[in-house]
Amino acid sequence: MILDGMSGRVEKNYPLHKLSTWRIGGPAETVYWPETIEDLLKVWQRAQAREIPVRLIGRGSNVLFPDEGLSGITLVSTSLRGISWGDHSVRVEAGYTLARLAQEAGELGWSGLEFARGIPGSIGGAIMMNAGAHGGEISSCVLSVSTLWADGSIKKLKRDEFEFAYRFCSLRGHAWVLEAHLKFKAGEREQILQDMREYLTKRTANQPLELPNAGSVFRNPPGHSAGRLIEAAGWKGRSIGGAKVSEKHANFIVNTGLATSSDVLALIEAIKTDIQLKYDISLQTEIESILTARVNRRRDV
User: Fold this and answer.
1) Active site residue 170
2) In the UniProt entry, which residues are flagged as the active site (predicted)?
3) What does the pLDDT look like over 88-141, one tens digit per residue?
4) CATH 3.90.78.10-classified regions of the chain
5) Containing H/E element for 42?
6) Among 53, 72, 76, 263, which residue carries the largest CB count within 10 Å?
7) Which one is catalytic: 79, 167, 179, 288?
8) CATH second-level architecture of 8-79?
9) How many other CB atoms are there within 10 angstroms of residue 209's CB atom?
10) Residues 93, 179, 286, 288: which is the catalytic one?
């Protein structure tokens, strides 16, 4: 059995909607919350050796799970929260909450993550998509990362060994972040905390936090705002099934209660097609869709 001897929580037929801020997704065959990177690596390698599907997720704030569920093992990094503070730097495991780290750095008078105070994801996920807001991006803080590759190997990469761009990291689709070494600048503590309070106030006022969502669905095209384009095209408040374009912010698709993955994907495609026809602009999504449906169950998981 792949999970024999492992510390950490294990669940069978676990509802994926509980692992997503969108609250969407069918049952996962097996979900495992490793408590150490060593346990995560051991399970990953065992699963690969037996050709059992395995994937790693964080806090599910940027993920769309399939209605059919997922086979194999879904590893959740949220118990990997080790942290070690240095001199205007920190080493932190992938499951640590980005917003919490931003607040803690601010309390120390360290600047660099003010923009992230309201972002609900984990450190690993934030790096994989180069999370940003209010003109800031996490890439400006990264010194190095420890990464897990598909073959089960772990590699430590310095900042110049991989690339960042707008909502892009070259590791995405190839590796997963296990730990990051981040740097900060010395700043004025009260100003940093004030900036974070203002960002949180703007977020509450402008985003539909009262309904399940996955943040901004589309990247901003060069020279444009995706939200403004979608609003101008008349999509605010429109829905397919239980998925609805937020009336508060048009770049958010909210779950009104019974939304399915199929509803969200259909709404995304309809918006993309309409924007292409009306403005000759191709919208690209920020979210990650995991669309591998369930297959035959295995007994050796």
Assistant:
1) no
2) 167, 216, 286
3) 999 999 999 999 999 999 999 999 999 999 999 999 999 999 999 999 999 999
4) 216-285
5) helix 37-49
6) 76
7) 167
8) 2-Layer Sandwich (3.30)
9) 15
10) 286
> According to CATH, where is 3.30.43.10 located in the chain?
8-79
- Spatial distance between the Cα atoms of 250 and 178, rounded to a whole number of angstroms: 33
Place of tokens 């590699």: 155
Write the pLDDT tens digit of every residue in 218-271. Answer: 999 999 999 999 999 999 999 999 999 999 999 999 999 999 999 999 999 999
Strand partners, 78: none
User: Tokens standing for 52?
Assistant: 């059992």
Give the integer Cα–Cα distance in Å for 216 and 285.
Answer: 8
User: What fold does the segment set 216-285 form as a domain?
Assistant: 3.90.78
**CA dihedral (226, 232, 233, 239) positive or negative:** positive
297 is catalytic: no
Say whether 225 is catalytic: no
Q: Under CATH, to which class is 83-192 assigned?
A: alpha beta
Nearest to 216 by CA among 159, 137, 286, 266: 286
pLDDT tens column, 112-122: 999 999 999 99
Contact 27, 69 (CB under 8 A): yes
Strand 253-255 and strand 175-183: the pairing is unpaired
Half-sphere exposure (Cβ direction) of 246: Cα atoms closer than 13 Å? 23
